[in-house]
Each structure stands twice: as structure tokens, then as C-alpha cells.
Amino acid sequence: MDNTGICSICEGQYIEYGNNAYPFAGRCCHDCDNRFVIPARIMQISADAQYELAILQQVARLGRTMVQAQAKMRSLQLVKDNTNAEDSAP
Questions:
Q1: Which domain holds residue 73?
Q2: Which run of H or of E encompasses 58?
Q3: How far apart are CA 32 and CA 15, in angstroms?
Q4: At CB < 8 A and 24+ separation, what contacts does 48-54 make?
């Protein structure tokens, strides 16, 4: 049984069962749980919870964008490496 999934915050892959992402939707990786979910839950207790939650959601979107950009860069590097390997083959 494969116990992996896609994080609903950064869209990266998590292993095991992930974490409940509330107040965000779905399940999340351990990194997003620590960086976004737990602080968001703590902020919900404060008087300015809605404002702070909106900021965290914006940060989560930026994090997702960064993860996607890193994945594209890795893909481009793989293509480049494969092209270089083919060019150097006899």
C-alpha cells in the first residue's frame, strides 16, 4: 500500500499519511504543517485571526509557486543532462 500523497498547500509530495491541513483544505506535508498550519491555528485564537490567516494563505501560495519553479528547474536540468549525455556518446 502506497502511503504518499500531494500536499494541498505546496503541492509537493508527502510520505506516510501527511497531516490534517485545517484551516487549509486537504492534507499537507510535515514542512507545511510546521510552517503554515500550526501557526495558522495559533493565529485563529487571536483577535486579528482573519487578517493573519489571509497573510498565511498568501505565503502558502508563494511557497507553492516556489516548489513548482524548483520542479521545472529540475526537469530542465534533467533534459540538459540527457542531451549532453547523448551528444557525448560515440
A1: 5-88
A2: helix 49-88
A3: 13
A4: 53/23
pLDDT tens track for 29-54: 999 999 899 888 877 776 566 777 77
Pick the more confident residue, 26 or 65: 26
What's the helix, strand, coil split of the chain in %, to 5?
A: 60, 10, 30
Domain count, the chain: 1
Is this prediction's pTM over 0.70? no
- Tell which residue, 41, 49, 9, has the closest CA to residue 23: 41
Omega within 30 of 0 (cis) for the link into 23: yes
Nearest of 18, 15, 20 to residue 2 by alpha carbon: 15
